[in-house]
Write a structure and sequence with these properties.
By secondary structure, the chain is mostly beta strands. It has one domain. It has helices at residues 2-19, 157-163, and strands at 23-32, 38-43, 49-55, 62-69, 74-81, 96-100, 106-114, 117-120, 128-131, 134-137, 147-156. The strands form two sheets. The protein has a seven-stranded antiparallel sheet, with no helix packed on it. Residues 14-18 have low confidence and may be disordered.
Length: 167
Amino acid sequence: MKRSVAAGAGLLILLSGLAALIPIRPVLEVSALPQGPVLLASPMNRGETFVISYVHSVNRRPVDDTIRFEGDHLVIIESRFDAFGAGIPETTNEAGRLAFGPDGRVIYSLSRDVPEIRLFVGRVAGHVLTVNRRSTPLADLIEPGRAVLIRPRTYSLFELITKESRR
């Protein structure tokens, strides 16, 4: 009898440990490139959005890119800016629609699926990632001039405990 209780308890502990490794929670993960450590992991739900804000390298004006989290991929849905410059759309085109927002800023609406976003953390750009109403300057996570990978992932309970604390 004691052996069967001990065996049952051992099996329960083993199954609990294995269950902690099963992916259960979608997160937005920021990691250093190439193949560096996880710098930030923020739980998100499908359909929620986050923003990458920065100063444009040519016209030195602010740009806010809004991206939707879809669990297994990301969708760039709009870019907001107040001045045109190199690489910034100047008119409605096949990729997106240009309009003016109520605040006078230009809104370029699009729907571009991407599996991930790779970017160099700029020295001038001042990249800021805003997720769940929490803004984090990327230069606080990694030295400017280095690259990061922003991507959707699904974390296990173990990963949530160990990696989520890095935010």
